Amino acid sequence: MSITVKNLDYTYPSGVTALNNVSLKINKGEYIAIMGANGAGKTTLIKHFNGLLKPTKGHVLVNDIDTITSSVAEMAKIVGFVFQNPDHQLFLTTVEEEIKFGPTNFDFPEEQIQEDMEKVVTFLNLKNLLKRSPFSLSEGERKRVALASVLVMNPEILILDEPTMGQDAIQKRNIAKMINELNQQGRTITLVTHDVEFVAECQPRVVAMTEGRVIADGMAKDVLTNLEILAKTKLRPPQITALAWEIANQEQSFPKDVITISEMKTNLLEFRR
Ligand SMILES: Nc1ncnc2c1ncn2[C@@H]1O[C@H](COP(=O)(O)OP(=O)(O)OP(=O)(O)O)[C@@H](O)[C@H]1O
Ligand SMILES: [Mg+2]
Fold it and tell me: Which one, out of 8, 29, 91, 231, has a CA that is 20 to 30 A from the CA of 220?
C-alpha cells in the first residue's frame, strides 16, 4: 500500500491556495511525520490521502487508485484517518458504540470486533470510559477515542493528524508504542505533528512543509538538526539537540546531529575518554 502525490496543487473554494506543486512518495510500510508551522498545508495534504479533498491540479494515487475517481467510502476501507479535532469524528452516545461503529458498518464478525476493541481499549487506556458519552470526556480522552475508533478497523494505511495533541507523557508514550507496533506489522503510517520530542523518540522519515510546499524530506536526525529548516517550519530543536549544540559551542568536535538520549550518552562517554 503506497501513496504517490504528483504535482499536487490545492486551492480552497474561498480562493486560499494551500498546496503548491507537492510531490511525494510514501512507500508501503513506511512511517512518516509531516511537520511545519501553522497553516503550512499539512492537514490539507493528508486529507488528499483518503480522498476527502480532491486535487485542484495533479494526482494522488493510493496504491494504484487515483483518488479523483474513488469514493470516500471506498478509500475508508484502506485508509484510516484520525482528524486533528476529534469533535469532527465523534457523534455517537457512548464510547463503546463509537469504537464499534466502523467495524460493525463494514460487517466485521462480532467476535473479531470484540477482540480488536479489547486490544485498542487496553492500549489507549479507555476501559473505564466505555459507557460514557464522548462529549462528557476531556479533550485528551476524546482524542484517544477517535484514535481507537480508527485503529479498531485495522486499516493498512493510517493517517493521524496530531495524534499526541493534548496527551500527557504516559499516554504519549503508549501512543508512540502503539504506532511503532502497527508499523512493525507492516502498516504504512503518516502522521502530522508539531511535537519534536515525539519525532526524536520515534525517528520516522520527516517531511517538512512551509507555505504549501515540501522544503525537506529525510531522516529525523538530519531534518531536526538543520537550523534553516527548523527556522522555516517554526520548530525548536529537540532538547537533546539544543544541549549538543551548547556543548559543541565550547568543544568543536562534539557532534551536532544528536537527537536521542542514548546517542547523547554514547557521545558524552566517548568524549570523556
Ligand atoms: N476549509 C478551509 N477553507 C479555506 N481555507 C482553508 C480551509 N482549511 C484550511 N485553509 C487554509 O489553508 C492553509 C493550510 O491550512 P492547513 O489546515 O492545511 O494547515 P496546517 O499545516 O494543517 O496547520 P495547523 O498546524 O494549524 O493544523 C491555511 O492558510 C488555512 O488558512
Ligand atoms: Mg492541521
Answer: 8
Tell me the pLDDT tens digit for each residue of 76-122: 889 999 998 888 888 899 999 999 998 998 888 999 999 999 999 99
Measured in Å, residue 43 CA sits from the centre of ligand 1 at 7
pLDDT < 70: residue spans in the chain: none
Query: Which atom in ligand 1 lies closest to the alpha carbon of residue 212?
Result: 14
Task: Using the structure block, give the residue that is written with the C-alpha cell 494526482.
Answer: 59
Q: 166 lies in which domain range?
A: 3-235
Do both 230 and 116 map to the same domain?
yes
Cell of 222: 538530519
Ligand 1, closest atom to CA 162?
27
The rounded distance, in Å, linking the Cα atoms of 266 and 51 is: 45
Using CA positions, which residue lies closest to atom 31 of ligand 1? 39
Predicted TM-score (pTM) of the model is 0.93
Q: In what order do the strands lie in the sheet with 213-219?
A: 79-82, 157-161, 188-192, 31-36, 205-210, 213-219
